[in-house]
Amino acid sequence: MIRTKITSFSTSEIFRRLLNNKSKTNYWRYIMELRKRKSSEIYNSAIELTKSSDKKEKIIGINILAQFGNPRIHKNQTLRIYFNLLKEENDIYVVSSILYAIGHNNEKLTENQIDFICHYDSNKSSTVRHSLTFAVSGIENKNAIHTLIKLSKDKDSEVRDWATFAIAALIINDNDAIREALWERVTDSDKEIQNEAIFGLATRKDARIKEVLKKELETVDFNSSYTLEAIEVFNDKEFITLLEDKIIKNKIEQVIPEDWLISTLDHLKK
User: The pTM is what?
Assistant: First the structure.
């Protein structure tokens, strides 16, 4: 089986399998193995693939470079390659692959680089917009945050989901624009997005979220770990009594694991 043999494959054999692969079954395992080997031969071969006129080959090259080496090496050179590609690339899947790859290397993006990729926030493809959210997530930069706020209102739920999570949990920046964007998502039609927004506001100690957390606590169930985490970070001692009451009710209702409630209660009592 491939799981026991892949490390013994030669580099040329892995490249051959990648380039001739008809399915995605082992695609990422081949990519990760090449990344781990981190030889100049592999890096340069990946660069050559990014120059290919074949979309599949180009994406393979992009993906190999995205997390090359452990610890990572050639990051600045890789970013230059990506941004040069973006200047001429229009295919949504290639662009998306590049943006995801940039997201794995975005710690030291320049202002100009951030501004350049943020213009994809109006792209017609939700695939591109979703990859953009990943590219600018976790960056404490005004334009990046503004872009995530815009994408948190996106018509596509997956784009909204990641953008909301990014501004709620992946940055420490806190201002009125961020809070209002999160507040809008508290009533989102997608429950997961609601939870992320609630958590982000609880983390920022926004007083408006207290009543929302009370209502969420009343209806907690086996899918409510996010609610209890939000109560913990909000850290309002009034919830001690509410949790104690809920533990008593839950002994009869059994709608949520009791140890979850007890853990949150213990956290607030510290």
Answer: 0.92
